[in-house]
Amino acid sequence: MDNKNDYYSNFTLSQEDERTEATALSISDRKRVITIASAGEIPICLYAKTDGEIIAVDSDIRQLYLSQLKYTIVKRIDEIDALRFLGYKKIESSERKNIFDKLINIFPKDLNNFWKQNKEYLYEGVVHTGRYEKFIIKKVKIFNFLFKNAVRQFLLTKNRAQRQVAFNKHFNRWYIRLFFKIIFHPRIFARRGMDPRSLKQRNKNQSVGLQYFNKLRNFCVENPIDENYFFQMHFSGSVNKDSCVPYYLTPEGVKKIKGKKDEIKWIHTDVISYLKHSEEKFDAFHLSNVPDWLTQEKFNELLEEVYRCSEDKARVIWRTLHVNYDVPDKLKKYFIRDEQQERNLELSDRFPFYQLNIFSIAKDC
Question: Which of 6, 174, 322, 348 could be cross-linked to 202 through a Cys-Cys bond (beta carbons 3.0 to 4.6 Å apart)?
Fold first, then answer.
């Protein structure tokens, strides 16, 4: 890969809580699932939670190589070494190099060749090398320096009530809202923290920073800090305990993955193109935040292909931050929205910065 940037790709840690996606899709009952590969956590976790077939697609080959890396590592080594190697736990780069030297010859050939050429990202702890992750790491350091007393008081909380009081007292302040407006201003964020294409469809009259700040309350308050690996990775760069990780890296998840004979199918293409050329039927669709990258017209096209390739009672989930597209009129009677589940899961979601969109498909209407 010819990459002159200091980051690997847009994201190296999926910004989706696999508990949410698994619940929304009723994943244990599914037989064929299509998912966006992204940074790998969702397809691998869903794979560990179902006996069904998992097909993971992505238009960015780097995301597929990253996802396959995580999947292969969990298949080949124990979860503690996997946590350390991937970057969930802090270790020296020399230790990661030693682990990689042991792994490289058991990778599939194309994966082997790719990561030999890009091993510097692995030595950093690959989950820290995304464009977004590097941007956030720098901004959190500034945040912790400027508001160190607020952060310290918040981290001392023991329960939801205390977190609520601490948030209102220390974080819900005009100067912190201003900080968010500045660092997430599109001129800064789109240049340093995010692919500009992901912001192209946003409402220009809304502040991206205030969008993030308005979701910060749920992120900080609704889930215990010691059970939220997203919070820990954002604020300290590592998890506090080995059990506070994505499901595929837990002892139970690793055991299930190692015990499975079928493989995830990794496909380099965008989801619309894949579905357009597919004659398969799926009973679960994980679409990540793909709609944020699409025009209304392309979003309509995506849902038309989802409907064409769906089984009756298939489940669908996507996340949005910048757009709020309606299901096209001709499909509305088939896409049955589960608003109650959306509300419930948004409260328990460990990365609640996105709006959840959860549907069942009724083919017999």
Answer: 322
